[in-house]
Amino acid sequence: MITEKLLETRSDIENNMRTLLGRPVMVTELDAFALPCGCNGITANLRGLELDDIEIFEEQMLAHFKEVALRLGIPPSFIFARLVPGSSVVAAINWRVLCDRCYPEFARTHGKMPRPDIYIMHLERRKGGGRGTKKMRSGRM
To answer: Under 8 Å CB-to-CB from 112, ≥6 apart: which residues?
Structure first.
């Protein structure tokens, strides 16, 4: 069942970050989502993680985050941290498959922080402006 897999993964992410940082970090919630535009993925809501932690341990965290995405069947094409506005506190880590409408917004950005509330850890560039996920019509697959 998907909820059992999410529970197991939530615990795994939390334990991995605690071991890596040597201090308490809480994953308060792990959610799967599907947005109206067509973007989809998972979000881990966190407490106790700072932007400095990500900058220092980015390589190790990113490797683990990609592994988590693959275990849950989500292509690890866009992984980013969402910050509490005006601070260095990390509110969430997001694994997102960008839809065709949202991809260009992030693809044309440069640097790790295209907005003050987003720190991009990984963005897979599409070859030739390739396609992501299209918005599904209600009730149709």
So the answer is: 119, 120, 121
Measured between alpha carbons, how far is 141 from 135 in angstroms, rounded to an integer?
Answer: 10
With the C-alpha atoms ordered 99, 105, 108, 110, is the resulting torsion angle positive or negative? negative
Q: Is the pLDDT reported for residue 139 higher than 60? A: no
User: Among candidates 112, 132, 110, which has minimal Cα distance to 121?
Assistant: 112
Q: What are phi and psi of 137, to 5 degrees?
A: -75, 145
Query: Which structural domain range is residue 39 located in?
Result: 2-126
Contacts of 66 (CB under 8 A, 6+ apart): 76, 79, 122
Q: Is residue 73 in some structural domain?
A: yes
pTM, entire model: 0.86
In a domain, 134, yes or no: no
When divided into structural domains, the chain yields a total of 1
pLDDT in tens, 65-97: 999 999 999 998 999 999 999 999 999 999 999
